[in-house]
Amino acid sequence: MKRGRNNDIIKEQAGECMVIFLKNWKRKVLRYKIYRFCLGLALAVSCTSLTGLLYYYIDSSIPSIINLRAGEEETFHLGIPAKAEIVSVSDQGVSNIPQGAVDIDLSRTVTMKAGENASFQMQVKLFGFFPIKQVGIRVIKDQELIPVGVPIGIYVKTDGVLVVGTGEFQGPDGVDRSPAKHILKSGDYIRKVDGVEVTEKDEFIEKVRKSGGTAMVLTLERDGELIQVQVKPELDAAGEYKIGAWVRDNAQGVGTMTYIDNQGNFGALGHGINDVDTSTLMHMEDGTLYQTEIVDIKKGATGDPGEMTGMIIYSEDRILGDITYNSYQGIFGVCNSRALAMGVREPLPIGLKQEIQKGKAQILCTVDGTTKYYDVEITDIHLDHDNVNRGIELTVVDPELLEITGGIVQGMSGSPIIQNGKFIGAVTHVLVQDATRGYGIFIENMLEH
């Protein structure tokens, strides 16, 4: 009996050990599966991230548009693991180049030459297999521009009355009112009041004041579309009718004229005129350039961009020309004789973005009363056409300019950038964290307007 009991105890203990062993083994198997899943997930995430980064790098390294001079060889080097097929596009959108007849390796230096009035498309494929981007190839005529680099005063009249924002005002009973809230939006342009066109801020305010509290039908331009809304003015504490909206009908500022072409047209700024409050590109009815003098310069410092302060006298004898177009690439218009007299330098051929090199360059600007060249260093070139105003990265290295301005300051936007005797772009932005560094726009982008 005793031996049997011992055997039972041994069997029971063995069974318990087996249960413990099985539980531990299951835990290890489960832990192994979890580790394997996590490892696989991490590997998948890493591969996806690397693929995404590679795609982004390649996509941003390829311009959406490549310009070629008619009849001249153009060389560019993208240095990416991709191949491309080029097709010629007719007016009917049909290629007259057989498929596969023109294949190029974008990891190597590519030389192209095209005749006048030609248009091409380039289909880029990653590793030669996966389509990633369509690139337009345009043939343009060579052009020369006069670099100017002179400060200008800018006055722009908006196309309609711009709504800057909405707010509240106190009524006669002490209660806050906001009739325009949720009806008008920042960035709206008021074109008509009750079917009658309005162009002046004071004119619109007067119509509201004389409304007698009757609901007004406003015709607005919003996001490129015309819509109608109804707003009912209410009395404020002073007994005047208001709708609770801040409006504007003009903008002023100081910038730099970039170039004058052989037809007497100018380009300036290298970026559009945006409303200071809404940060949107202003819809312009008309505008005027004025001669200006720089009266003060606030040096740029880390975290504090500097600024050139100009004195603008709005008189007929100070007008330099008419602004006819405000775009993301700059402001453009027609010079008068006074402005044409500012184009005293010899015209320079334009430099296309594939011709720009990292290294020495110059900018032309006026910071001490004299227009002259200052040394800069081009540190990077972003060929992606979608990066309209920041294609060129540059650093000011000229000791004289650093002493006067600390680098790039507001008001220098539009200063021509010259490299190897070619007009390649214009200064557009300064880095807030480092006033010696900034961005520029390719001159070919400015000429697209």
Report on the structure:
The protein contains five helices and 29 strands. The model has no long low-confidence stretch (mean pLDDT 87). 19% of the residues lie in helices and 44% in strands. It has 449 residues and is α+β, with helices and mostly antiparallel strands. It has helices at 2-61, 201-209, 337-340, 399-405, 443-446, and strands at 65-69, 73-76, 82-88, 103-105, 110-113, 119-126, 130-140, 144-166, 169-170, 176-177, 189-193, 196-197, 216-222, 225-231, 234-235, 241-242, 245-260, 265-268, 284-298, 307-312, 319-327, 330-335, 348-349, 359-366, 371-381, 392-396, 416-419, 422-431, 434-442.
What are the defining features of this structure?
449 residues, alpha+beta, 6-stranded antiparallel barrel, 6-stranded antiparallel beta barrel, 5 helices, 29 strands, 19% helix, 44% strand
Shape: globular
Total strand count, please? 29
Q: Helix fraction?
A: 10-25%
Q: Count of DSSP helices?
A: 5
**Gyration radius from CA atoms, angstroms:** 32 Å
What summary fits the major beta sheet? 6 strands, antiparallel, barrel
* Overall average residue pLDDT: 87
What share of the residues does DSSP label as strand, in percent?
Answer: 35-45%
The N- to C-terminal Cα distance equals 107 Å
Give me the side-by-side strand order of the main sheet. Answer: 8-17-18-22-21-19
Low-pLDDT segments, ≥5 res: none
Structural class: alpha+beta
